[in-house]
């Protein structure tokens, strides 16, 4: 019989005679590795030294009772992780019920019948084996899902990079604008104390804030001068064009691209566009991108303007706290100014 080969059984009994009988019986019939413990007070150290798949436990022992051993074991192991077969000479139903309630899986009465011992041990080892198989299968499935998710995320990231590059080609006067906005947004998210997963998502998606401009006519997008009222209205449409460029799919990254594209021109005081959202109703990733975008726009040369000085741009961001921008994020911007300036120089056009 090899179905339980490799499993480990612990016989915990202060009686050497009972221990030897049970060890011989189980080892011979089940083809498993059997260890003995005649000092039940050492149960914790014994379990820490070697993994076991079943405990045959005597109820009546001096010093520490079987019930107490069960309590110790169940602090670390669930019923399926380490089954316990309790052996007792007591006939009381109360004792049996208490043992089962405290975490014993099954019960044997002394003097025990060898066939009954084998049958109950076999049942519990099968339970343990099933749990091992289920856990291993579950782990394999989880690993497969993680791998597929990782591959999908890589594909989505590749798509985002491609879209950002396409946006740069269309709006060719902006150089490394999208890259800088992504880095600025990351610095702000870090300064605000966001989790690393969210920081990385914002860095990846913020560069696509203007993806809707792919659908904006070039005569407006590249006009060497200020736009008139009608042209501004057309330009403002880029905030809602992303929906037609990127389908709504069940991907947090794609969904974040859409919220940033739609919300990075909303203002904290409700005066922005396209929906005139107010304060906290503006998604935080859009609020972060708004500061990053405006700062880079101010410090960059455009067809219709020269680049502002660093001091003037920073002062403008400060002045717009509570107006265009989330005041708490403006405070973060000021705190992280040295990091932002470093990126500005490293990624200069």
Task: Tell me what you see in this structure.
The chain folds into 2 domains: 134 residues, Response regulator (Rossmann fold), CATH 3.40.50; 175 residues, Hypothetical protein af1432 (Orthogonal Bundle). Helices cover 57% and strands 7% of the residues. It has a 5-stranded parallel β-sheet, sandwiched between helices. Strand 1, helix 1 and strand 2 form a beta-alpha-beta unit. Helix 11 packs across helix 12. The radius of gyration is 34 Å and the shape is rod-shaped. The relative contact order is 0.08.
Helices and strands, with pairings:
Layout: E1 8-12, H1 16-30, E2 33-37, H2 43-49, E3 54-58, H3 66-74, E4 84-88, H4 93-102, E5 106-109, H5 114-170, H6 177-191, H7 196-205, H8 218-221, H9 229-236, H10 238-245, H11 252-263, H12 284-298, H13 310-319, H14 327-335, H15 337-346
Parallel strand pairs: 1-2, 1-3, 3-4, 4-5
Q: Order of helices and strands, N to C?
A: EHEHEHEHEHHHHHHHHHHH
CATH C-level name of the largest domain: Mainly Alpha
What is the molecular shape? rod-shaped
CATH homology superfamily name of the largest domain: Hypothetical protein af1432
Sheet/helix structural class: alpha/beta
What would the CATH topology of the largest domain be?
Hypothetical protein af1432
**Radius of gyration over all CA atoms, rounded:** 34 Å
Identify the notable features of this structure and list them briefly.
349 residues, alpha/beta, Rossmann fold, Hypothetical protein af1432, 7% strand
Brief write-up:
The chain has 349 residues and is an alpha/beta fold. The protein is built from 15 helices and 5 strands. The chain has helices at residues 16-30, 43-49, 66-74, 93-102, 114-170, 177-191, 196-205, 218-221, 229-236, 238-245, 252-263, 284-298, 310-319, 327-335, 337-346; strands at residues 8-12, 33-37, 54-58, 84-88, 106-109.
